[in-house]
Amino acid sequence: MQLTLSVLRCPDSVVPEQRRVPGGDYVLGRGADASWVLPDPDRLLSKHHCVLEFRGGGWQVRDLSTNGTFVNHATTPVGRDQVKMLEDGDRLRLGAYEIEVRVEQSGAQPSA
After folding, report:
1. Rounded to an integer, what distance in angstroms lies between the CA atom of residue 74 and that of residue 63?
2. CA 35: distance to chain centroid?
3. Is residue 38 part of a domain?
4. How many CB atoms lie within 10 A of CB 77?
5. How far apart are CA 73 and CA 80, in angstroms?
6. DSSP-based three-state secondary structure for 99
7. In whole angstroms, what is the distance from residue 53 CA to residue 60 CA?
8. Which of 5, 39, 63, 107 is the most buried (most CB within 10 A)?
9. In a domain, 65, yes or no
10. Per-residue model confidence as pLDDT tens digits over 50-86
11. Which domain holds residue 29?
12. Is 33 part of any domain?
């Protein structure tokens, strides 16, 4: 099951990107060793802000941050070292970023 991440909102000085995540753990943050280094001129992100993990046949987000990782319109963060299962179309909010999550089922056949 592959994950595609698309930046919908970001700092003005940053060009929105899209990334494909084939599997494994995928760290988002401002740290140079993150899987996806997100430019953060206002330093709202942690070096390792959150990690996307494939577990039990699905994707989940684990919040590693100080300022919080939010899913969709939640007003409270996932919580440090807590997880939330992700669904197709969910939106992650971290710092000045909003990132759409698309979950692609492997072997899915296009509809006729």
Report:
1. 14
2. 11
3. yes
4. 19
5. 18
6. strand
7. 5
8. 63
9. yes
10. 999 999 889 999 999 999 999 999 999 999 999 999 9
11. 2-104
12. yes
| Phi, psi for residue 6 in degrees, rounded to 5 | -125, 125
Nearest to 42 by CA among 101, 86, 95: 95
Amino acid identity, position 2: Q
For the chain, the domain total comes to: 1
d(CA 108, CA 25): 23
**Bridge partners (DSSP) listed for residue 56:** none
Whichever domain contains 51, its CATH number is 2.60.200.20
Q: What's the pTM?
A: 0.91
Q: Tell me if 112 is assigned to some domain.
A: no
At 48 the pLDDT is 98
Question: What b/e string do you get for 40-65 counting C-beta neighbours within 10 Å, with b at 16 or more?
Answer: beeebbbebbbbbbbeeeebbbbbbb
SS3 64: coil
